[in-house]
């Protein structure tokens, strides 16, 4: 199980420090659950200090595919590792929707993350319109094919997939456990095809979209749901810790 908090564009540096301490205290010993927090770039170093010596790991919310260069406003993989990151979220639907992120761009970033020892959390998911049109699997399948082209994780811990139906993000509307399981099983099938069953079975597929303390256990109880990518509920230490315990 893996539970990651995506803080999105919330918390200044002081608030990030406070939240990081709160998460580490509330989570305590997470047992078999890997716990990750992904604050905004400017707070990465501060959060790294706060979670040092705790089981909580650090992730970023995005990165550029090049090591360095004239890319104003961008942040590179070596910068993230120097800030203490072990994970990086790539291809979040908000990046796709508002910042023109493409599957091909995500693919380049995955290779770059791997080249620098970062574990990418690769997001896929359909919009409401696509789901209503019966195209959810086609859309998610396409995202997987194009963003994972040429990807060969040297072990299953080096790649995480997050299924985040766009219609469930920040809306309070969650995929039902059945809907989540159905799509996760589909994703698992595709991963098995690409990486072989042994690796496919071991890869973590997270569910994201309005996961709360009250619905986490039921979602995480499904066979192919290996944890969650948490937005709103990751901004409260106690709520996030309750979700980790559900894991
Ligand atoms: P919410 O948990 O706020 O719906 O956000 C989910 C998400 O986008 C995590 O990356």
Show the helix and strand layout.
Layout: E1 2-6, H1 13-27, E2 34-38, H2 44-51, E3 56-60, H3 77-82, E4 87-90, H4 93-99, H5 103-115, E5 119-124, H6 128-132, H7 136-147, E6 160-163, H8 177-195, H9 197-202, E7 204-208, H10 213-220, E8 227-230, H11 237-246
Parallel strand pairs: 1-2, 1-8, 2-3, 3-4, 4-5, 5-6, 6-7, 7-8
Helix pairs in contact: 1-2, 1-11, 5-7, 7-8, 10-11
Bound molecules: 1,3-dihydroxyacetonephosphate (13P).
Order of helices and strands: EHEHEHEHHEHHEHHEHEH
Distance between the termini: 6 Å
- Helix tally equals 11
* CATH architecture title of the domain at 63-234: Alpha-Beta Barrel
Low-confidence stretches: none
β-strand amount: 15-25%
At the fourth level of CATH, the homologous superfamily of the domain at 63-234 is Aldolase class I
Largest sheet: 8 strands, parallel, barrel
């Amino acid at each position: 199980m893996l539970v990651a908090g995506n803080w999105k564009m919330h918390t200044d540096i002081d608030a990030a420090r406070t939240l990081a301490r709160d998460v580490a205290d509330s989570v305590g010993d997470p047992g078999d659950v890997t716990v990750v927090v992904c604050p905004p770039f400017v707070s990465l170093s501060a959060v790294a200090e706060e979670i040092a010596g705790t089981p909580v790991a650090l992730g970023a919310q995005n990165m550029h595919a090049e090591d360095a260069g004239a890319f104003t406003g961008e942040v590179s993989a070596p910068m993230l590792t120097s800030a203490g990151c072990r994970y990086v979220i790539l291809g979040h639907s908000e990046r796709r929707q508002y910042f023109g992120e493409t599957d091909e761009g995500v693919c380049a970033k995955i290779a770059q993350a791997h080249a620098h020892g970062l574990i990418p959390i690769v997001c896929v998911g359909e919009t409401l319109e696509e789901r209503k049109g019966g195209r959810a699997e086609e859309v998610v399948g396409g995202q997987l094919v194009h963003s994972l082209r040429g990807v060969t994780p040297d072990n299953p811990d080096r790649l995480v997939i997050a299924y985040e139906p766009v219609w469930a993000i920040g809306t309070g509307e969650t995929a039902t456990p059945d809907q989540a399981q159905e799509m996760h099983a589909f994703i698992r099938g595709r991963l098995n095809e690409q990486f072989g069953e042994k690796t496919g079975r071991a890869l973590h597929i997270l569910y994201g979209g309005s996961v709360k303390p009250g619905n986490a256990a039921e979602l995480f109880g499904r066979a192919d749901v290996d944890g969650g990518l948490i937005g709103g509920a990751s901004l409260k230490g106690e709520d996030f810790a309750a979700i980790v315990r559900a894991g």
